[in-house]
Design brief:
About 30% of the residues lie in helices and about 25% in strands.
Length: about 60
C-alpha cells in the first residue's frame, strides 16, 4: 500500500438540497389549510422539482 493511501481518512459529508414552494389555499383555519396542503402533497398533487430549488448545504457528519 502506498504511503499516500495509508494517510487517507474516510469522511462522511452530507449534501442537502432544499426545495420550497408557497401554496395558497382557502380554509376555515390555518390548521385546516396546513392539513389541506399536506393531503395534496401526500396525494402527489404537489410535486416539488428543480424550479423549487432554494439552496444547497454541504456539511461534515460525524
Amino acid at each position: 500500500m502506498s504511503t499516500f493511501a495509508q494517510r487517507m481518512t474516510k469522511y462522511r459529508i452530507e449534501v442537502r438540497e432544499v426545495l420550497s414552494r408557497i401554496v395558497e389555499t382557502d380554509a376555515e383555519s390555518e390548521d385546516d389549510a396546513v392539513e389541506t396542503v399536506r393531503q395534496m402533497y401526500r396525494n402527489c398533487d404537489i410535486i416539488l422539482d428543480a424550479s423549487d430549488y432554494q439552496e444547497t448545504e454541504i456539511d461534515a457528519k460525524r
